[in-house]
Design brief:
The chain is of the alpha/beta class. It contains 7 helices and 5 strands; from the N terminus they run βαβααβαβααβα. The chain has a 5-stranded parallel β-sheet with strand order 2-3-1-4-5. Helix 1 crosses helix 7.
Length: 170
């Protein structure tokens, strides 16, 4: 299938490369790059960690869902979602309707290595290794709805981008 001018929506666990791959895809296609977390921070005037602290995960997910739906109204966009954007009811369905959904994955060890020392991830408060394991277990099936899945563990950003573009262009 050819997805010309449709959005490319990147989903997956934190630290699987959504923002980095999204930036390269946007450059390659000349599309607008939308990093959902950055849009939320800009709209709300607070960091993701502050939003979590203020109202909890459910509060944040409501904001995230509203922004996601708004961003999906355009086309020719690369949309890099937060790791939990797929959790809210209805988000997976609207993503599938509005473009090519690609799930990026990585091994548990790779994710832990990538997030080590990152203070800006509210879901990793405490023991990051234990939290990553718990989140991976909790979301094991959450990304299966995607049109395609790419393991980024042993691939360069260029290789991942090339694979996605091959499917996007048909």
């Amino acid at each position: 299938m050819n997805y010309a001018n449709k959005n490319i929506i990147l989903v997956g666990m934190m630290a699987t490369g959504k923002s980095t791959v999204g930036a390269l895809l946007a450059e390659e296609l000349g599309y607008e790059l939308i990093d959902l977390d950055h849009v939320i921070i800009q709209n709300e005037g607070r960091s993701i960690a502050e939003l979590f602290a203020e109202g909890g995960e459910e509060y944040f997910r409501k904001i995230e869902s509203a922004v996601l739906k708004e961003m999906l109204e355009g086309e020719s966009r690369i949309i890099s979602t937060g790791g939990g954007a797929v959790l809210a009811p209805g988000n997976a369905e609207i993503m599938l309707q509005k473009g090519l959904v690609v799930a990026l994955t990585a091994t548990e060890e790779e994710i832990i290595a990538r997030v080590s020392g990152d203070e800006n991830r509210p879901l990793l408060a405490g023991n990051a290794q234990e939290r990553v394991r718990a989140i991976l277990e909790q979301r094991r099936d959450a990304y299966r709805f995607a049109h395609y899945t790419v393991d980024t563990t042993k691939r360069s950003v260029a290789e991942v981008s090339e694979y996605i573009l091959m499917h996007y262009r048909g």
